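Dear colleague,

Thank you for sharing your sequence with our group. We've completed the structure prediction you requested, and as agreed, I am returning the results in plain text so they can be pasted directly into your records. Please verify that the sequence below matches your submission; if there's any discrepancy, let me know and we will rerun it promptly.
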Amino acid sequence: MSAKDNAPKAGSRRSNLPTPPPVRPAPELFVPDDARCARYWEEYAMLDNVAAHSRMVADVATFLARRAVEKGIDVDVPTVRASALLHDLAKTYCIRHGGNHSQLGGAWVAELTGNPVIASGVTHHVYWPFAMDLEPYFTPLAVLYADKRVNHNRLVSVKDRFKDLVVRYGIPLNLQDSINETKRQALELEQLLCDTLEVDLNACDFDSGRLV
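Please find the predicted structure tokens below.
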């Protein structure tokens, strides 16, 4: 596939469709643990660097989920973590064969887990095309933000993450406008998370949860 297939797309901007129903965990839904997610990685031949990226994204998303629980938000931490671990399940396939890795990955994860909440985080980890509301949509928004804080396997700021995206996709593929819109959303989401969770997300290591 070309790099353009994995880059943020202008067509994925705000949707004219109605906002989806709340995405909330339920006790009857299956949630794979880390070991099961790693087996899914093996089944889909995930590249090692994609797996390393996914682990770090999961650490960021898990921190957000735990903090949300502390603040009284209805969040299931294992559900958020599983969604983050699986968010790039289709990335390797799409690098090799083409396709939209977030949409294909969401379909695969829905089939593997039968859990629409986990799948929603995979499908929407590139861009959320609706109004942002943490209460009903915490899982997909947490995964989206966590992905924007990890460049390869390194924790970075949102602005630094998008500097890399502009170099890799924006300039060569003339996608600056699309990438800048995705950056604007990520920064808006970051502020919403900081205000709601009452934490400076740019002063946190996301591993132990300590401020740095």
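Summary note from our side: The chain has a mean pLDDT of 88.

Kind regards,
the structure core
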